Amino acid sequence: RGSEGFISTWDGGRAWKILVRKNHKNVCRRPGKEPSEAVLELLNPKPEKTDPPPAPKKSVVQKEQPVRVEAEDLEVEEEAELSKQFRQELLRETQVVNAQMMTAMQEARGDPGQFLPRVQELKAAYEQMLLDHLNTRSRTQRAKDGIADCEEKEDPHLAAVHLGHDLMKEVVMAMLQRGMSSGSAMDQLDLANNHFNACIVQNTPPAKYALEDDALEGFEPAITRVKEKGFVTLEGLLDDEIASVIYNECRDNFWERRKLGAMHEAKGAADGSFECWLPYPPRKGTSPELEHALRILFGLPHEFAKNGYPRQLKVPTMAHLSCFPRGSLERLHLDFDGDKAGSSSSSSGRELTFVLFLTPGWEREDGGAFRAYLNGDRPGPRPGQATVGYAAGSSRDGEAYAADDDGPASDEHCIKEIWPEAGQCVIFRSRELWHEVLPAKKDHFALTLFVQRAE
After folding, report:
1. What is d(CA 354, CA 49) in angstroms, rounded to the nearest whole number?
2. CA-CA distance, 60 to 43, in Å (whole number)?
3. Measuring CA to CA, which residue among 103, 101, 94 is closest to residue 261?
4. How do the pLDDT tens digits run along the chain, 455 residues long?
5. Which candidate, 254, 278, 230, 268, places its Cα nearest to that of 436?
6. pTM for this prediction
7. Sign of torsion, CA 308 312 318 321?
8. Best CA proximity match to 227, nearest among 13, 429, 364
9. Which of 76, 168, 403, 452 allows an S-S link to 386, with CB 3.0 to 4.6 Å?
10. CA 113, CA 261: separation in Å to the nearest integer?
11. Cis, peptide link before residue 206, omega less than 30° from 0
12. What string of H, E and C letters represents the secondary structure of the chain?
């Protein structure tokens, strides 16, 4: 076959020669004689029999099945949309209340003594508004909104309070993420954590709170001990004169104003104690003595960072103030719950805990010891039984209790008790030290800084 698709002369001659050799006798016949059947088959080859092409199949047009939408599906979608609209309406009203509270705080120039009554008034009206909204919805609708659970089903007011916490946290988080001035951010954190139990943590580098070079002398051995052993106690960070001023301030400005929202009952491992969060730099009206204690507490993490602590640290902008009324306690616990499934609380990133005691003139007979469970000179495994109270194993109400069952128990430990004397400081790795606070015969206060792990 040539380049243009024709049969060449040479190829044709070759084909002819082959035909002649194979059929020579019949091809060279006499004139006038008909060729034999074999020759005719060669000269006029019969067309090959081929099967007839299959008949085209008739196209079957399938009828589309009608989409059946059940009435129940429509009802579920409609209810979901209504629930979404209901929450959006509540969020808009929460934004209005948040703005009113911020105005009250700013008009008081950050003085809690002036803005607390107004904030509490707005909070009470806000919770009543939420309760009114909930009362307009059936119990089934509240369950679908995700705002009725356990005892809340029987207590609509409790449901309104918890719903307010959830909504205000969402509003504050959104505003913090958008960005604002440091003063406004501090007001939002104060509002969210102290009045709506939001547990929002805003962290900064330790260097921001660095102390002067001569502020702490001989602190390096304590840092080494925490690095190697995970636990240390310090003495003398506050003298009794300074501690007396701080104690009176905590009693008058926080404990006595707890009904105005200056403190609220602590949750978790606490039993009868109260708490609040103090911003740093401190608010207007804070005494120089309390500011001094806060400055030391916030400066300690930088000392760890610059002296080779093996973890990168970040410091929150608020410290935790605890008031332990007579007979109150803290049950056995860790200051860290990051190993629990689904944990997302502010304690899930803690690395170091700094506890500074503030009560002067404390005697051991007053009780209230901070009890640490050690294995030798370092944090030990979780003890199998915690014993607290005026008598072993009793709570402030005189009832015996065991430690919460949140980990494997062990009796391989020794007990170290630190009395809450003014100026005494306990520093430990939050993820390792099991501890509790025993009941005391008189009120006492403590400042705690929960330092986070940066990575």
Report:
1. 100
2. 48
3. 101
4. 444 444 344 444 444 333 334 444 444 444 454 544 444 343 455 555 556 666 665 555 555 666 565 666 667 777 788 888 999 999 999 999 999 999 999 999 989 999 999 999 999 999 999 999 988 876 556 555 555 454 445 688 999 999 999 999 999 999 999 999 999 999 999 999 999 999 999 999 999 999 998 888 889 999 999 999 999 999 999 999 999 999 999 999 999 999 999 999 999 999 999 999 999 999 989 999 999 999 999 999 999 999 999 999 999 999 999 999 999 999 999 999 875 544 445 667 999 999 999 999 999 999 999 999 999 889 999 987 554 433 333 344 433 333 344 444 445 569 999 999 999 999 999 999 999 999 999 999 999 999 999 97
5. 268
6. 0.77
7. negative
8. 429
9. 403
10. 10
11. no
12. CCCCCCCCHHHHHHHHHHHHHHCHHHHCCCCCCCCCHHHHHHHCCCCCCCCCCCCCCCCCCCCCCCCCCCHHHHHHHHHHHHHHHHHHHHHHHHHHHHHHHHHHHHHCCCCHHHHHHHHHHHHHHHHHHHHHHHHCCCHHHHHHCCCCCHHHHCCHHHHHHHHHHHHHHHHHHHHHHHCCCHHHHHHHHHHHHHHCCCCCCCEECHHHHCCCCCCCCCCHHHHHHHHHHCEEEECCCCCHHHHHHHHHHHHHHHHCCHHHCCCEECCCCEECCEEEEEECCCCCCCCHHHHHHHHHHHHHHHHHHHCCCCCCEEEECEEEEEEECCCCEEEEECCCCCCCCCCCCHHHHEEEEEEEECCCCCCHHHECCEEEEEECCEECCCECCCCCCCCCCECCCCCECCCCCCCCCECCCEEEEECCCCCCEEEEECCCCEEEECCECCCEEEEEEEEEECC
Amino acid present at 130? L
Backbone φ and ψ of 28, nearest 5°:
-85, 70
Q: How long is the chain?
A: 455
